[in-house]
Model the fold of this input.
Amino acid sequence: MDIMTAVLTRRSQHQLVEPAPNDQEFAYLLRAAATAPDHGRLRPWRWILVRDEGRIALGRCFADECAGPGFRRGQVEAKTQRAPLLATLVFSPVLNDTGRGSPVPEWEQLAATSAMAGFLILLLHARGFGSVWRTGRFTESERIRRVLGLRPEERLMGWLYIGTPQRLGSSTRRVTEDVTDRISVFAPEPPASPSASIPRTRAVASSGAAQRAGGL
Done:
């Protein structure tokens, strides 16, 4: 599967069954995903793989967070049974030797983590697996942080539910939308005097030819 096909045919898959990638296959795909842009090659992230009994224990932890009026424990515990593999993404910002922060700002490390996750999702799709990203209130739970062993400086980003799509959805390529209104080109005017020029930007015209050239 070429990269453009992978991008345009990927869909979030909500009904996932076995098989999911085993630990070795996940590590193989992650090695490729880790080549995503990452200033300093810090790899400010780690994954915690949750399977089998781990899913049951995590479901109980979810339920413990939700106790209250109208609470249905079984429904909450079942949330972790929606896929055979729950890959937990942890953001681990890299500090420098003084502990005051890396020369690479935290926002840039977070962007690198997001890029890696996006690469991994596409690699899973190209491999025949489905996935869906899930976040929500549980990412802020101190109880769940303790159960998963997060350090104080780390952030729980969410869970990538992974498996084989139970129902094969449409594999047709998405129809792309015109996004040229999100692009401008910096085009300063030649100075009419020795004074500094005033920078301007101009919009990029929509071009169907560009889409045809890209095979969209």
User: Anything to note?
Assistant: The mean pLDDT is 89.
